[in-house]
Amino acid sequence: MISHNLTRALPIGLWLAVSALAPACRSSDPATGKVTPIYSAKTGKLQELTLNRNGDGRVDTWAFMDGVHLQSIQIDRHGTGKPDRWEYYEEGTPAAGSQPGAGAAFDRKTMIVRAEEANGPDRTTVTRREFYTDGVIARVEEDTDFDGRIDKWETYEHGVLARMDLDTSGHGWPDRRLVYRPDGSFDHVEVDVTGSGHFVPAPTGSQPASPAGGTPPKKSNGGEW
After folding, report:
1. What's this model's pTM, rounded to 2 decimal places?
2. 39-51 as b/e, with b when 16 or more CB fall inside 10 Å?
3. Mind listing the pLDDT tens digit for each residue in 195-225?
């Protein structure tokens, strides 16, 4: 995550930032996207930027500003006309080696602190939450089956996935842990059969084959954790 969700959102933020700062943004071709600035009638400060990034004529990205400082971004990833990803920023200096975000293009002292996504059928209920430390992804909580309960927890070290805890039984607590190497590649599986929070290596023979590229094993229904 770096997280795949951060990688996925980064081009949107950077493209938004570059377009907003370019003089041509006021009259850019709708076929390539159009950025529209909105200013406060009271203070004259920039308070919002809207963007049609796919050129379909509908706004799909909203950046909320406090002058030159980015506060949050809302993104419509599925063309519903409503946002389904929300990113929140605050002033601060990102850690060395952190992935540049949208805030860096506006203000080098702005960094992402958290993000939310609605990945369920209604595209409105938040099912995924990402948490960042000094602009670097640190952990993720996700409801992958959209029943209202978290069933996947990801922990990152220096922006690299270190472990993924899964609730495979619907008990409300993780019972399976996928452990990753420092380079992000998959290493081994651990289990907690009592719900005590104590994980031990899975018995020999129950370990899945090492997934290519560190991709986690598949769910029993064929989906991917």
Report:
1. 0.76
2. eeeeeeebbebbb
3. 899 999 998 766 554 444 444 544 433 445 5
d(CA 163, CA 185) in angstroms, rounded, equals 10
| Both structure tokens of 205 | 């023979």
Among 119, 174, 124, residue whose Cα is nearest residue 152: 174
Query: Which single residue is written with the structure tokens 């809207």?
Result: 50
For residue 114, which phi and psi values (nearest 5 degrees)?
A: -165, 165
